[in-house]
Amino acid sequence: MQFPALRPRRLRENETIRRMVRETRLSVDDLIYPMFVIYGEGVRNPVPSMPGVFQLSVDQVVLEAEEVVKLGIPAVILFGIPEKKDEIGSGAYDDNGEVQQAIKALKDRFPELVVITDVCLCEYTSHGHCGLVDKGRILNDPTLELLARMAVSHARAGADMVAPSDMMDGRVAAIREKLDALGFKHVPIMAYSAKYASAFYGPFRDAAHSTPQFGDRRSYQMDPANSNEAIREVKLDIAEGADIVMVKPALSYLDIIRRVKEETGYPVAAYNVSGEYAMVKAAAAQGWIDEKKVVLELLTSMKRAGADMILTYHAKDVAKWLVEG
Predict the structure, then answer these.
(1) I want to staple 190 with a disulfide (CB 3.0 to 4.6 A). Which of 83, 207, 244, 247 is the partner?
(2) Which residues are annotated as a binding site?
(3) Domain count, the chain
(4) Nearest to 110 by CA among 194, 35, 212
(5) Which domain holds residue 294?
(6) Which residues are catalytic?
(7) Does 1 fall in a domain?
(8) pLDDT higher than threshold 70 for residue 209
């Protein structure tokens, strides 16, 4: 049947009909809000490359979370910025570290808020790499024990979920084994399974003080040219015990999100990363785009591709916009 009998515009005639046939819906329940926890008290340092994002001391994290909870955002993910760094990232698994203190404070004040923690050494090492280093080489297996210690430290503090982002081989299995052995079988793992060596991470490294002091991360993060490798990585993490798998970044990797969802059927998280956020903010500040419309379109595309949840610095704004309709 052809035109004029077939007229797709009939179902676009007004907003009510468009809403009735809408295939993809973005909800506040899809959102996870990232926060940067720094040492000190009363600290709220703006991140220059990420307008609206701050490094927050523990007391300020709690204040920020109050707004997050009021907006109905179900979860946050915490990244730590220690006062001192060393070659083995000892602050990462310090039970009195900034993130551990923030977890306790958040769970005490907002028990219903899901607190997820980033598990990686890069914010804590003096060299800025995600693993131990020997003569310029990133060591895989010795790093696993430290990542497992970090995950256990977070779980002991009360974290609801841990999220290893280091891309070391075998880290999901190492973390799962250690969590289970120490009585944390109930703590799920959200694995950064397909994490690419992307140019979109620059503002995050500004916020987390985690720029590598030598070389780059291409020996452990994935080549942006590869798709099949992502599926292999995801399936390995699932086999090792991951409960949720993540694709990072999101915007340039919508095809990967779609493949992961279709080929595994697992819950998929997409990280709308700092560079994606900063580009939108910069263009909006110049008046070149409508920030609200662009952000909602971008996040809807991630949902449409297959993401079940989205980590995004836009989360608070999006939650407000969704309430406004």
Answers:
(1) 244
(2) 120, 122, 130, 205, 217, 233, 274, 313
(3) 1
(4) 35
(5) 14-324
(6) 195, 248
(7) no
(8) yes
